[in-house]
Design goal:
With 211 residues, the chain is α+β, with helices and mostly antiparallel strands. It is globular.
Length: 211
């Protein structure tokens, strides 16, 4: 690996750890409020097989929900002519030709939720890519090891719940709930040696980043 690639990996790791700290310390937000929070990035890999960059473990894009990616609703003010035909069935233009549209938006939360039987491998090459003809082949991405027998198998887990506030039904009192960081019990296999570990969901993601 060349020096630039190594620096890129170190910078990606630093950014991921900084974002993790920010997410853990941020109370639950709406989708609109979360727009200023960046996402964990998946820049490496062929179409449909993207992986995080700079992490110790090759976390694939299909684990986005485990990393707190969520879908929420947000209202947009748009020109009536710019919305879809389906949206026009429930929207009317105002005198200026504008309308309000409720749309799904993806946002980054700290509701981390790795689950039982999740498997995370140390390199993309340990996963298999299926091409349009149904053929399987290892995923090769520059900067990642070609081979590794290190992987994680989640044995048990409870999801993290961000800091939030609820309203008591009877008294209407606001109740503050501190963050619950969840739990992940997993087997770490390295060179055929199996080690059982238990971490919080927050600590588990940090382990995926740093090793």
């Amino acid at each position: 690996m060349n020096e630039i690639s190594e620096l890129q990996k170190l910078e990606s790791e630093r950014k991921a750890l900084k974002l993790l700290d920010k997410l853990i310390s941020t109370p639950r937000k709406t989708a609109k409020q979360s727009k200023k929070i960046p996402f964990f990035e998946f820049p490496d890999g062929p179409q449909y097989y993207h992986f995080v960059r700079g992490w110790k473990f090759a976390v694939p894009e299909w684990f986005k929900d485990r990393l707190g990616f969520r879908i929420g609703k947000e209202t947009f003010r748009l020109k009536y002519g710019k919305i879809t035909e389906k949206e026009k069935l429930t929207c009317e233009p105002d005198k200026n030709g504008m309308t309000s549209v409720l749309r799904d938006v993806e946002y980054q939360s700290s509701a981390f939720c790795f689950k039982k039987n999740d498997v995370i491998k140390a390199t993309p090459a340990a996963y298999m890519l299926v091409d349009p003809e149904g053929n399987k082949k290892p995923i090769s991405i520059e900067g990642w090891p070609k081979k590794s027998n290190t992987y994680i198998l989640v044995k048990d887990a409870t999801e993290a719940i961000p800091e939030h506030t609820t309203i008591a039904r009877e008294t209407k009192e606001r109740i503050h709930h501190n963050r619950y960081s969840g739990k992940v019990t997993f087997e770490l296999t390295q060179n055929d040696i199996i080690e059982l570990k238990t971490l919080s969901q927050d600590e588990f993601i940090k382990f995926l980043i740093e090793g």
